[in-house]
Amino acid sequence: LKQVVAKHAVRSLSSITVPLPDISVYRFEKNLFPQKAETNREEMLKYFKAMTFQRRIEIACDEIYKMKQARGFCHLMDGQEAVAVGIEAGITLQDYIITAYRCHGFMLGRGGTPEKILGEMMGKLNGVSKGKGGSMHMTSQKNRFFGGNGIVGAQIPIGTGLAYGIKYEEKKEVCVTLYGDGAANQGQLFEAANMAMLWKLPVIYVCENNGFAMGTSVARASANTNLYARLDLIPGARINGQHIYAVREAIKFAKEWCLSGKGPVCLELLTYRYHGHSMSDSGLTYRTREDIQKVRKERDPIMTVSYTHLTLPTKAQVQISVVAEPLKKK
Amino acid sequence: MCIRDRVSTQSTWGFQESKDMMKVFQLSTRITRFTLLARVFSAGPPPLKMDFSEKVNTKEVTLKNPDKLKKMNICQAVNNAMDIALATIPKSYVFGEDVKFGGVFRCTVGLNEKYGTDRVFNTPLSEQGILGFSVGLAAAGCTPICEIQFGDYIFPAFDQFHNEVAKYRYRSAGLYNVGGITCRCSYGAVGHGGHYHSQAPEAHFMHTAGLTVVIPRSPIQAKGLLLGSIRSPDPIIFFEPKILYRMAEDMVPEEDYTLPIGKAEVLQEGKDITMIGYGASIRQLMMASKMAEEKGIKCEIIDLRTIIPYDIETIEKSVKKTGRLLITHEGPVTSGAGAEIAAKIQERCFLSLKAPIARVCGFDTPFPFVYEPFYLPNRFKIFESTLKLMEFQLKQYISIQSVSYTHLTLPTKAQVQISVVAVSLKKKPT
Questions:
Q1: What is the ipTM of this complex?
Q2: Fewer CB within 10 Å, N- or C-terminus of chain A?
Q3: Active site includes B197?
Q4: Measured between beta carbons, which residues in chain A are less than 8 angstroms from residue B25?
Q5: Mutating which of B130, B369, B374, B375 best tests the A interface, going by the most A Cβ atoms within 10 A?
Q6: Strands A36-39, A96-98: parallel, antiparallel or unpaired by DSSP?
Q7: Residues B17, A113: C-beta atoms closer than 8 Å
Q8: How far apart are CA B227 and CA B85, in angstroms?
Q9: CA-based nearest residue to A212, from A182, A255, A242, A233
Q10: Residues pairing with B250 in the sheet
Q11: Which residue out of A138, A140, A152 would a mutagenesis test of the B interface target, given it has the greatest number of B Cβ atoms within 10 Å?
Q12: Option in A49, A73, A330 nearest B25 (CB)
């Protein structure tokens, strides 16, 4: 799964081509999806910094929760950074995002600073939701981030409604509605998806499939484990959610598809979370430590970018190490 | 500050505008120190050291082996009850989200190993599905014991409760019924639950004719009431106060025993004020009554146990004895259980009341994320209400009723005098 830059690619600092991993499609033609991504050193550094930053913030949230400075429930998304950063990279701040309770990464992408996020978790007034929401309900009005929703699946019809508003105002924007593999079995999803396809709404349904709905694996909860293929007429694709360029290109493609009036798209991002479901879940009763270590070694999203960078000229390598050190020191 | 001013279309992931990482670290330590100080004030004084463990009420249940007791908390008591139910009722099933490995509160530990996946199994994340599925099972004559992981998540299933479970027997004239359903949920505040892990939704179910809601206060009660609920011919929602799952411990009888559904229990006799509560509020009531006893106020505490249909006779008997009523529950005050009981009691015991009925409940807001101790009805709020109710007696003017019957037979001059006195007393500021 290590993506190595093709030996014959142009070795200039200005542009690098990254081949994308294979995808599964449903009601799409596979050749419509891009097979490589264009990027450059600055972008790679930007994504690397963003993902490492998210990772450190999640670990900081872990610490303050364990110190009982933050109460309520804390759902961490370390291991899923490529999803948050990749989606943000593919859309603009004019587009809408709504997600479930694993929302710290998305908040960072939508104007959250560490002080505001940690403040929100501790219930302080300087927090993003003025301390009223906590970890699960981080919102940003200016940047069109609708949170942070506690009830599983409740955000899906809300996202569909947002898309209706966009279409009504004839804007060139999309609403990215995220949900997890657990919510994939909620009735609300199918009700909302039907409405979206009926009225051709500009909504991208993104299923963050991290393999486990709390403690239940996807295979034991869903009869059809192809979560991208479950929304009937809505075309779908299964993307490797740990590869940031795959996510970015998929979202860009989905946005173009929606804006051309063809209706909603469903993307299933295969990802993984290292922590348990929440801070009260050790994460080890339904999977072994070896599984987690294996994913850390082979499918870590930050590694994807750094392996790509290993083949960059030394200057870029040095730059990235220089950036990583102070971030780690936090 | 920069990102607020700039109108940009590309996200910068927040860190480029934020302060230097070291400053953030310093800030977080300063926050930690400040909150440690602030917590001294926000946490309140330490709880009264009281022993809440109980013994079995021999008036309600006769045990075959009263000496065979085992120390259990509510999780273990509920587990034991389900074990007995699965063993004695052939077509009973336990299912819900994550129950197979033992449940998030460890209430179903060991059941799957003992009875197999045919009878103890996981469902997907779909509360409406869980309840609809239970309705079908119960209509076919089985005994489903479903679990809704948190009471806050019961609302997708509310349609099934309200429109199917409650009306099944009624609309088929008794030909079918779903009495076998017992739905177990965790309930109530837990100290750090926030909006969606602390709700107390029993009031929504009180408004539905056909449902029964049961809330235990201790392990002995939990086991007996759960067995009573499972064996009851009516569909029952069993709310288990999650804060007491580990906190409440009793010497619980190991045998099969049932406590009656629909009956309240008088925990403590008193002559001054009747206090009604259920679940975790009972502990607050007992602590408040201890505080009141120092002032010479003797409180009568009643555990409602079954919230709907509630035991109005016991409450009425008690209010007629004491004349004052205080109801407490965690849920919001408007249209909560307290509102219903207060209305019923004033209908039946109006002349016995010496003071208005007090309801010490949560505020009419969503359950807060912070400052939970300020939201919940704790022993201090209950104690304050008790004092207000007792003081109402002192400030009350003389009852006109007892005077007017006598004065009708007195000569006219005396009548006028008494009227003058009565009017001036009426105008007296309270």
A1: 0.78
A2: N
A3: yes
A4: 330
A5: B369
A6: unpaired
A7: yes
A8: 7
A9: A182
A10: B72
A11: A152
A12: A330
Catalytic residue among B97, B147, B164, B197, which? B197
Contact A103, A124 (CB under 8 A): no
The pLDDT tens digits along chain B (430 residues) read 333 444 456 666 655 545 455 565 566 666 666 655 555 444 555 656 788 889 999 899 999 999 999 999 999 999 999 999 999 999 999 999 999 989 999 999 999 999 999 999 999 989 999 999 999 999 999 999 999 999 999 999 999 999 999 999 999 999 999 999 999 999 999 988 889 999 999 999 999 999 999 999 999 999 999 999 999 999 999 999 999 999 999 999 999 999 999 999 999 999 999 999 999 999 999 999 999 999 999 999 999 999 999 999 999 999 999 999 999 999 999 999 999 999 999 999 999 999 999 999 999 999 998 888 899 999 999 999 999 999 886 555 444 444 444 445 555 555 555 556 656 666 555 4
Burial class (CB in 10 A: 0-12, 13-18, 19+), B290: middle
Active site residue B97: no
Angle between helices A314-329 and A41-66 in degrees, nearest 10: 20
Q: What is the reported pTM? A: 0.82
In chain A, which residues have their Cβ closer than 8 Å to the Cβ of B365? Answer: none
Chain B: closest CA distance from residue A174 (Å): 14
CB contact under 8 A, B124 and A137: no
Residue A178: φ, ψ to 5°? -100, 145
Distance CA A157, CA A188 (A): 7
Which string of b and e fits B49-77 if b means at least 16 CB within 10 Å?
Answer: eeeeebebeeeebeeeeeeebeebbbbbb
Give B132 to chain A, closest Cα distance, Å. Answer: 12
